[in-house]
Amino acid sequence: MAKISGKERFYSSIGMLLHVLFVAGPLDFWYWIRSSLKSVNGRTIVITGAASGIGKRLAELFAIRYGAKVAILDINQHGAQETVDNIVGSGGIAQCWKCDISQVEEVNECARQINVTFGNVDIIICNAAVLYIGGMLDLTTCQLQKSLDVNVMGTINTIRAFLQSMEERNEGQIVAISSIAGFCGETNGIAYCSTKFAIRGVMQCLEMEMKDRGLNGIRCTTVCPYFTRTPMILNLRMRPTSIWLPFMSIDRCACEIADAILREKSIAFVPHYISIIAQLKGVLSERVENACREYLNCRYEPLKQEEVEKNEITISKERDYFKGLDISKKYLLLISCLILMTGYLMMMQDFVQSMLQTLLLFTSSNFILAIWALHICDQLQFSFPCKFRWFMQIFCFGFISFRQLYRFAYSSDSRKDCAR
Q: Where are the transmembrane segments (predicted)?
C-alpha cells in the first residue's frame, strides 16, 4: 500500500468530488443530451451467429436500413446464406463465412478473408452463443465445455482476430451481446449465466485497457437483453414464466440493440427498464432480494408439454390456502363491535375523542395480527396473492380471521390436506 499523508488523502477526495461534480458529470450529461445515431453507411460490420435469431435481424437492419457492408460468421452455413440472400435481395451488401468461432485458426482465416473482401472492419458484433439449461450435476462436462468454448472463448477469439487492425487506426467499435443473465444467476443457468457473466467481465477489462492505452477511438459496447423469442430459446420449450416481464420479439430486441450500438453506449439493457434489476442487485438484503426474485418469477425451466399446449404461465410452486369468513360471521362480528363500542362510548364524557382512541386501538391490534399472519404465510410458503388476501381479511376482521390461519398453520391434518 502506497504511503500517503492524511492531508493528501483529504485533498485527493475533495479533488475527485470536484471533478465528478463539475467536469465528468456535466460532460456525461452533455454527451447524453447530444447523443445521436452515427452513420455506418459503407462501413464494414462483422456479426457472429447471424444465421438466425437476433444476429440475423441485426445483419438485415445494418445492411438494408443503415447501408453497411455485413460479414457474417456462423457455423450454420445454410442459415447464414439465407440471411445473405435476404439482404442482397433487398439491395444490401453481405457475405457469409462458415466458421466455428471456438477454433482460433478458423476465426483468424475468416478475418483475413474479410479484410481482403471488404477492407478494414469498423464494428464487431459478438452475438454467437449456445444455450444449455440444467442443474450443476445434470449437465455433461461436454455441454459445460462447449458453453465456455463458444460463448466466452468464441467472443475473445473474434475480438482478437480484428483488434490489431483497429488499434493501428485507433478506430472501431467492439460489441458483445451479454444478457441480463450476466447480472443474475438463476437455477438451471449454470452453463449460460456463468458465460454471460464472463462476457461482461471481458468487455469491462477490454474497455479499461483501451482507455489506459490511450486508444479512445475504439469504443466498447456491452448489450444485456432480456429473454427474446429466438429459435435458441423456443427450441428448448422455454416460455415466459413472469407476468411482469414477457419475452421480447426478435425485431424489437434487434432494433434496440442497433440503437445502442449506433449511439456507442458503454452498456445497454434491452429493454432499458430491466437495468433496475442490475442496479438493485448489490443493494438489497438477502431476504428482500429473494422476495423480489419470487415476485418477478423469471425462470429457466422448460415447460412441460401440457403446459406448452395450454399456453399457461405457472406463477408459483407454493401451496396456497385461504378461507374467507362466512358472511354471517362477518356481519355478526361488525354488529357486536358496533353495539359494544356505542354502549361504551355513550358512557364517556368526550365521545369523539374516545371513539378515535377506540378505533385506533382496534386498528392497531388488527394490524399487528395481520403482520403476524404474513410471517405465518411466509413459513407456509404461500404465494404473494395469498399473503395479500390473508393480510387484508385479518386487518379488517381481526382475531376471528386470524384464528382460522393459526389453526391451519399448526394443525398437521390441515397442512396435509393442503399438500394433497
A: 12-33, 331-347, 359-376, 388-406
